[in-house]
């Protein structure tokens, strides 16, 4: 499996060859400001003590406090967290919000823990890191397998340790605990806004056939918004299964089926396929919304989508990027396509600091122009520099970071 941080650095090399940002900026961005590894002792329900490995990477804070989610996954390790933190720094710059880049994680399969164990583990992460966190220092959020409830535990733990009461140290909290309206669907919705802004520029029809990999927070919410706007979701998947129906899936029924059976498999009227087959389906738009490194040099040649919207972080390796470029398949990059999530996280932070509560309508009205602006500026930068969207977004981000640094 390619190392995501090496992939991120290949991307940085590529952009520095396209445009001269000066050696100092590139050297600073080759390493995070700080990478912290912690061990978290957790008393398990059976009375034994288990030690978990956790991380917080603070990559760059030129634009504002470090900002980025916390991932719970058995394969999470420091290089993945470093890559995600690097992309967060660029993503906040592309979205034009006053936040820097950070990321955290714990190597754990949360499905194997009881609720009590999960809460003790989450509070343990905060106990080890409370010194470096804070509304004006480092503001974590949810990512894969972390939920609003986990953010509420963490925020509560942080308040107990430090006395901080604004709730602005963690975003993605439940609404009743200071969360923002619209944060749940924000990443999927923001992805739709980006797609809609660039749709004609990437040569897609008014009504598209869409394939989505991953049916979690991002993938399921994106599927709903695309369907709401008349696009046809022809295939979706989760970690265990994938389903395909050429005429389009009824998402409400798919969700009910997944709830009832804990799986997408055997959804009536749809064909069971593999995740590999899903990625290679002919469609207008393919949206990977699960994990990094799913489109590599092994399968890039077989991709038949007319365009790709990277809702997940790092789903395409640099080698695959080149192949897709040569095939003429435009890729809307992660640091633009999934920036709606961190943008609404920033709105939550601002509401908490100002003791304000914005309506969902206000939140969405603020999100749309930022997503449109980021999309069109990315397009312009790509065009001016005669390159593809990812490099356009990198140029936009690095110019903004360089100016502040
Ligand atoms: P999630 O845990 O809610 O959902 C992940 C989904 O991917 C689940 O449906 C899971 O079953 C599926 N999955 C896992 N392994 C898979 C595999 N090998 N093949 C196919 N599907 C698989 O996570 P999420 O929050 O939706 O995050 C998904 C991606 O989006 C990640 O890359 C994350 O970093 C990125 N992202 C999330 C947010 C956010 O606001 N949650 C913001 C920006 C980016």
Describe this structure in words.
By secondary structure, the protein is α/β, with parallel strands linked by helices. It has 2 domains: about 30-165, 3-Layer(aba) Sandwich (Rossmann fold); about 185-335, Rossmann fold. It has 14 helices and 12 strands. It has helices at about 5-20, 25-30, 80-95, 115-130, 150-160, 185-200, 215-230, 250-260, 275-280, 320-325, 335, 340-355, 360-385, 390-405, and strands spanning about 35-45, 50-60, 65-75, 100-105, 140, 210-215, 230-235, 240-245, 270-275, 285-290, 305-310, 330. The strands form 2 sheets. Strands 9-8-7-6-10-11-12 form a 7-stranded mixed β-sheet. Strand 3 (about 65-75), helix 3 and strand 4 (about 100-105) form a beta-alpha-beta unit. Helix 1 (about 5-20) packs across helix 3 (about 80-95) and helix 12 packs across helix 13. The longest helix is centred in the C-terminal third of the chain and has 25 residues, at about 360-385. The mean pLDDT is about 95. The structure holds nicotinamide-adenine-dinucleotide. Nicotinamide-adenine-dinucleotide binds near residues 187, 213, 219, 289 and 290.
Q: Total domains, how many?
A: 2
Rg of Cα set: 20 Å
Query: How is the biggest beta sheet arranged?
Result: 7 strands, mixed
Helix content: 40-55%
Mean pLDDT: 96
CATH topology of the largest domain: Rossmann fold
Strand and helix order:
HHEEEHEHEHHEHEEHEHEEHEHHHH
Shape: globular
Query: What portion of residues belong to β-strands?
Result: 15-25%
């Amino acid at each position: 499996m390619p190392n995501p941080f090496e992939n991120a650095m290949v991307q940085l090399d590529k952009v520095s060859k396209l445009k001269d940002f000066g050696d100092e900026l590139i050297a600073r961005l080759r390493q995070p400001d700080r990478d912290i590894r912690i061990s978290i002792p957790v008393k398990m329900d059976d009375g034994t003590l288990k030690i978990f490995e956790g991380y917080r990477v603070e990559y760059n804070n030129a634009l504002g406090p470090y900002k980025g989610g916390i991932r719970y996954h058995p394969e999470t390790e420091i290089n993945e967290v470093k890559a995600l933190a690097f992309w967060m720094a660029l993503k906040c710059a592309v979205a034009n919000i006053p936040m820097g880049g950070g990321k955290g994680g714990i190597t754990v399969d949360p499905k194997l823990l009881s609720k009590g164990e999960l809460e003790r583990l989450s509070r343990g992460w905060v106990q080890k890191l409370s010194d470096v966190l804070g509304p004006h220092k480092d503001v974590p959020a949810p990512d894969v397998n972390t939920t609003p409830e986990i953010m509420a535990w963490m925020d509560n733990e942080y308040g107990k340790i430090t006395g901080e009461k604004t709730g602005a140290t963690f975003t993605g909290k439940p609404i009743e605990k200071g969360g923002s309206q619209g944060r749940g669907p924000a990443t999927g919705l923001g992805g739709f806004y980006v797609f809609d802004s660039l749709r004609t520029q990437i040569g897609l029809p008014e009504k598209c056939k869409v394939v989505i990999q991953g049916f979690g927070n991002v993938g399921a919410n994106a599927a709903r918004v695309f369907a709401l706007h008349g696009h046809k979701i022809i295939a979706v998947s989760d970690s265990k299964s994938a389903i395909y129906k050429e005429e389009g899936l009824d998402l409400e029924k798919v969700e009910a089926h997944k709830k009832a059976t804990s799986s997408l498999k055997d959804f009536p009227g749809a064909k069971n396929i593999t995740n590999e087959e899903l990625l290679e389906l002919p469609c207008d738009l393919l949206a990977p919304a699960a994990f990094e490194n799913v489109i590599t040099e092994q399968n890039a040649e077989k991709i038949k989508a007319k365009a790709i919207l990277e809702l997940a972080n790092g789903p395409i390796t640099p080698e695959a990027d080149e192949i897709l470029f040569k095939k003429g398949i435009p890729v809307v990059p992660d640091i633009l396509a999934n920036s709606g999530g961190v943008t609404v996280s920033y709105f939550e932070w601002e509401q908490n600091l100002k003791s304000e509560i914005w309506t969902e309508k206000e939140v969405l009205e603020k999100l749309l122009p930022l997503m449109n602006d980021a999309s069109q500026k990315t397009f312009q930068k790509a065009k001016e520099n005669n390159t593809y969207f990812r490099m356009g977004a990198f140029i936009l981000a690095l110019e903004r970071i360089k100016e502040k640094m």
